[in-house]
Amino acid sequence: MAQLWMNLALVFSLSYCARFAGVNIQTKTVMLPKPNKFFVLLALAALVVVSGLRSNIGDTYFYKRIYEINDFTWEFIQSQKDIGFGILQAILKNISSDPQLMIFTTALITNTLIVVVLYKYSRLFELSLYVYITGGLFIVSMNGIRQVLAAAIAFTALKYIMNGNVKRYIMVILFASLFHQSALVLLPIYFLVRFKAWSKATIALLLLSVVIVIGFDQFSLVLFNAIEDTQYGEYEEFTEGGASLLRVIVFGAPILLAYLGRDKLREIFPKSDYIVNLTLVGLVFMIVSTQNWIFARFSIYFTLYQLILITWVVKLFRPRDEKLIYFAIIVLYFGYFYFENVINLNLEYRSDYLSW
Question: Where are the alpha helices (DSSP H) in 261-289?
Fold first, then answer.
């Protein structure tokens, strides 16, 4: 864990410097601080190096093993679940048979795409990266490599949600689905989130999640019958239980604050409704995941938008209270990170390159 702790301190420090060395830019709708690109690149480099040079965590071993033992012919790629990832591995294996190249490349692409979008939309850039790590998504990116890569690609389509370009949004999502087919769930999301936040549709969405939880046995029966002939049919036998209530609380807390300050949020960030709605959809998946953990995988796509929302939530408070809220987020997420990875998972980070 020493490497992960040092990475957290380094990324936060560099991204904090990036904001204070940056400039304020007036967009059409809002004043945004633009972090200094040099420090942003240094923070990104820290994320990529720690993620890309790992030798364990989650499915890393199995991804490396698959890369080592297979020849990525076109026939083999077509026989696999997600051809985009197969093509990427084929390209990389022509360069080197060392699986560390694949791990490093996916870490580079995933983290770069995420940081680029956060750079554009976050109000407090360093807080986004801090929550990215302490909220757990950075660790998840080292486990569910393909899905978080697909989520990062889909994340870049945020601008098409905001400007109403449905054709380009669909193109990005279809491309993301080549790396993990579950990204296709985002296709109807475009139409679901382009409404005013906290409207009747919002209430209906949250009530739907509660109904699903109450009637989960019937819901899961219908769902798994529908997907039994797909690559996800195996999830019917998934028996790891549900996600913890703590996860739901951590995910839902920024949304509650956004609701309480909804009028001011629209004033300082006119297009925030899209971010709020996307995060709300993630909360629905997270609530349902208390019955079966597999649904938390879908929330991965929406956790990225929470990283933006939480930085604007700080600005909903009175100026004299902003520092208190800021430090409260730092302390609470630090505690959550420690509980999840040290106490709960007893996580160990290993690397053939970063060991001391």
Answer: 262-268, 272-288
Q: Which residues contact 56 (CB under 8 A, 6 or more apart)?
A: 348, 349, 350
CA pseudo-torsion sign 109, 114, 120, 124 = negative
Pick from 227-241, 243-257, 327-341 the range whose average pLDDT is largest.
327-341
For residue 145, the Cα-to-chain-centroid distance in whole angstroms is 12
d(CA 77, CA 299): 27
E strand spans, 76-198: none
Q: Which residues contact 142 (CB under 8 A, 6 or more apart)?
A: 51, 54, 57, 58, 60, 107
Q: Which secondary-structure segment (H or E) carries 158?
A: helix 158-163
**CA 130 – CA 44 distance, rounded (Å):** 12
Model pLDDT for residues 304-318, shown as the tens digit of each residue: 999 999 999 999 999
Helix (H, G, I), strand (E, B) or coil at 289: coil
Round to whole Å and give the CA distance between 346 and 26. Answer: 45
